[in-house]
Write a structure and sequence with these properties.
The complex is a heterodimer. Chain A is mostly helical. Chain A has helices spanning 3-28, 40-79, 88-105, 108-113, 116-125, 136-173, 181-221, 224-229, 246-277, 280-295, 298-321, 330-355, 358-366, 371-400, 403-409, 426-434, 443-473; strands at 233-234, 242-243. The radius of gyration of chain A is 31 Å and the shape is flat. By secondary structure, chain B is of the alpha/beta class. Chain B has one domain: 3-Layer(aba) Sandwich (Rossmann fold). In chain B, the strands form two sheets. Chain B has a six-stranded mixed β-sheet with strand order 6-7-8-3-9-10, with helices on both faces. Chain B has a four-stranded antiparallel β-sheet with strand order 2-1-4-5, with helices on one face. In chain B, strand 1 and strand 2 form a beta hairpin. In chain B, helix 4 (113-124) packs parallel to helix 7 (163-176), helix 5 (130-143) packs across helix 7 (163-176) and helix 7 (163-176) runs parallel beside helix 8 (193-206). The longest helix of chain B is centred in the middle third of the chain and has 14 residues, at 130-143. Classes of the chains: A mainly alpha, B alpha/beta. The interface between A and B is medium-sized, with 22 and 29 residues.
Chain lengths: 478, 264
């Protein structure tokens, strides 16, 4: 059975469980539902949850584990037959591809009777390209692979349905008039919610772990001191590269700084206008309009930087001032990125300014202060921690931005003060180090992980700092 | 209560604020209807009445705080020393410097005690140097009977004071701009009896310099601190007169019902 069908079956079982459980609860109470501890529906719900949740978990676990097991069994069998210089992963890729395509070119017996060359031709006719030379062993392995997959799928179906039935039976057996189905359902749902939040936490942990693992690998190949202290970045794929982080970090910080110089005043002032001056009607129109900026894909901003802002800055500022003649520059990327993060600053600051109690404004206005004096001297100081938080959030957004930098600032790693020169950032270099036909174990590739981890630590520190500021000063009013 | 009333005889008969046929609308809701009132100089005037009767709304008309509410519209005339405060030439910001306000809930700014009091004098440029400003701050805090409690910690946040101290800080802040009229919107409703007594004593002292208008829900408080009382009901000014007369011999049956606790 396919996964979709199994899922449907499980759901159908659970749904049936709901109605059976409900009916059973009613009959246990002798038709008088007031005698039950919980509403009849809760008994049904408890049966539903016991039938559905464990069986789905079993199914998911099975789906995760099965490929690993099959892979190891098939490759163990192939191990003895392939030559010492062939790569196991490439051979296995062929086997998998073959196994997936067998159905399309005929029955298993027919495939087995074909010579490897004929098979390869048939496969090519179906648009399936096989890398290495086909051997009969591989064809046999592919058939094995298929058979194991089929067996595994059957096993999964049987086990999942069995678990569902067992859960159902268990839950049904527990139904009594005084069985606290409502509390059990509540507990079950709580466990489910905890599980959901754990997934997010575990994913983060997993990301950090994988970054950390590869970074350690990188530092075993390349000295950490050079990485953190060297001021040259010149990866050579033949080896002997300089992989100093400073030019990239400098580019990142420079671009982000310009972005913030653009975004903070504009965002803050528009937030003040929206929160303090705008009439409700203007507000309902302008606020979503600004937030649309946040919804534009960054690649579109990149295009804007590439074709409009870059040439404009070059022709009107950089060349007349003699500061350079490149249309990619830190300034281009910074300006466009600044526009991109305006909504982060303005939308958050607007909410924060609105959260300042009206009584403070009244107090100040009641003393004969003008609205702008009130904002400058009372509202903004009270909202400051939140605004700082908003700015830092925008900063971490800017630091992590890639697309605008690729298209606006170029890819040259340079340490320079001139804002009209092309520079590049950490994120851009992560992309360019990982895309390309290089061996995955060289320091030139692995440096991407070290860069990623450094970036992660920087933005994490910024976020923690932002949270700390917000918490530290939150109790200023109220 | 008799003694208290005679002690609080009206000492002035100059009209400070005069309202004629004042109407207030919140959108389509007619909140104040045809209110005529003469508020005397150097007198404490109390506004009493059940919740929602419009006494706070009327109070906020007297320094045009209602301007900050977009849906609010005021008609009729209100004059301060003979000048219509709703005239186009009058700057509401300047007006509010002359007609100070203390709110129901203490609302100290998130600044130091000193800066809270110095706020008004600073924005109005009332002082030439730091020494004068220090003088105003001290004088205002003394007037608000708070100086002795805070003189050693003027630079600590005003929000760190107790509720009663915060309210007295707000009063100090209001008197620091040297207003001619002080409006108080239920200034004691968030305070305990001891702090209330302190604030009431303070109001009585403030009468020497200012005309004070106080909105209150406590009839005892109105009787204790005011010389004149206005009773509002459903947006109408039902009765206005000397506090003693209102409380001992009300002319209107509605006033009598309210002060004896039958409506409210």
């Amino acid at each position: 059975m396919s996964i979709g069908l199994v899922s449907l079956t499980l759901l159908a079982l659970a749904a049936a469980g709901y109605f059976i459980g409900r009916a059973r609860a009613v009959s246990v109470a002798g038709g008088d539902t007031r005698k039950l501890h919980s509403l009849a529906g809760f008994y049904g719900q408890s049966v539903f949850l016991f039938a559905a949740v464990p069986s789905f978990l079993v199914m998911i676990a099975w789906l995760l584990i099965q490929p690993v097991l099959i892979e190891s069994r098939v490759s163990a069998r192939l191990q003895t037959t392939i030559g010492p210089d062939a790569s196991m992963s490439l051979v296995m890729a062929d086997v998998r591809r073959l196994a997936g395509a067998i159905d399309r070119i005929g029955s298993a017996d027919e495939v087995a009777s074909l010579t490897p060359e004929a098979l390869k031709a048939r496969l090519a006719g179906q648009g399936v390209a096989i890398g290495g030379a086909m051997t009969t062993d591989q064809v046999a392995a592919a058939n094995d692979y298929r058979a194991l997959q089929g067996k595994g799928r059957l096993g999964m179906t049987v086990v999942a349905i069995a678990v569902a039935l067992a859960g159902m039976a268990l839950a049904l057996g527990r139904i009594r008039a005084d069985y606290r189905a409502r509390n059990v359902t509540e507990r079950f749902i709580m466990v489910l919610l905890i599980g959901a939040s754990l997934i997010a936490v575990l994913t983060t942990a997993g990301i950090i772990a994988s970054l950390l693992f590869e970074t350690i690998h990188f530092f075993s190949l390349y000295p950490a001191a050079d990485f953190f202290l060297s001021t040259t970045w010149s990866p050579k794929f033949g080896g002997g590269s300089d992989l100093g982080i400073w030019p990239l970090l400098w580019g990142t910080l420079y671009v982000s700084l310009i972005a913030l110089i653009v975004a903070v005043p504009v965002g803050l002032m528009s937030a003040i206008y929206l929160a303090e001056y705008a009439s409700p009607r203007v507000r309902t129109w302008v606020k979503p309009a600004i937030e649309v900026l946040a919804g534009i894909p960054t690649i579109v901003y990149g295009l804007f930087a590439l074709v409009t802002v870059g040439p404009l800055l070059r022709d009107w500022f950089a060349q007349p001032l003699g500061l350079g003649n490149s249309s990619s520059s830190v300034m281009t990327a910074g300006l466009v990125m600044g526009i991109m993060v305006i909504p982060f600053v303005s939308s958050l600051s607007d909410d924060i300014i609105n959260a300042v109690p009206q009584s403070l404004r009244d107090g100040s206005l009641g003393l004969g202060a003008t609205p702008s004096e009130t904002i400058r001297q009372v509202v903004l100081p009270a909202a400051l921690p939140g605004i700082v938080g908003a700015v830092l959030l925008a900063a971490s957004r800017a630091i992590g931005e890639t697309m605008i930098v690729v298209m606006g600032a170029g890819a040259a790693a340079k340490l320079s003060m001139n804002p009209f020169e092309a520079m590049t950032t950490v994120t851009v270099k992560i992309v360019s180090q990982l895309t390309g036909d290089t061996e995955f174990a060289s320091p030139e590739t692995l440096v991407a992980f070290a860069l990623g981890l450094t970036l992660f630590v920087i933005t994490l520190a910024l976020n923690i700092f932002a949270l700390w500021i917000v918490r530290r000063y939150r109790e200023q009013y109220e | 209560m008799k003694d208290v009333l005679t002690e609080n005889a009206v000492t002035s008969h100059t009209t400070k604020i005069s309202a004629r046929k004042v109407q207030v609308f919140y959108g389509t809701n007619h909140a104040i209807k045809d209110v005529d009132v003469e508020i005397l100089d150097k007198t404490v005037t109390a506004f009493i009445g059940p919740s929602g009767c419009g006494k706070s709304t009327f109070l906020r008309c007297l320094n045009r705080m209602n301007d900050t509410i977009p849906s609010c519209r005021v008609e009729g005339s209100i004059t301060l020393d003979g000048e219509n405060i709703y005239d186009k030439r009058v700057d509401p910001v300047q007006l509010r410097a002359k007609v100070g306000m203390v709110f129901q809930k203490p609302n100290p700014f998130p600044k130091s005690i000193y800066d809270n009091v110095a706020y008004g004098p600073k924005i109005h440029g009332l002082t030439r140097n730091k020494a004068e400003l220090d003088g105003i701050v001290e004088k205002s805090l003394r007037r608000a009977a708070l100086w002795n409690e805070v003189k050693d910690r003027l630079q600590t946040p005003g929000t760190g004071l107790s509720g009663g101290q915060q309210q007295r800080l707000c009063i100090a802040r209001a008197v620091a701009t040297n207003p001619e009229v002080l409006l108080m919107d239920e200034p004691c409703s968030a305070l305990d009896p001891i702090a209330t007594a302190q604030v009431e004593e303070l109001i009585d002292e403030l009468r020497a310099n200012f005309s004070v208008v106080i909105v209150t829900h406590s009839m005892q408080q109105a009787a204790r601190v005011s010389q004149r009382t206005a009773f509002f009901h459903l947006g109408h000014l039902v009765e206005y007169g000397e506090t003693g007369q209102i409380f001992t011999n009300p002319r209107d049956p509605r006033t009598e019902s309210y002060i004896t606790g039958r409506i409210g």
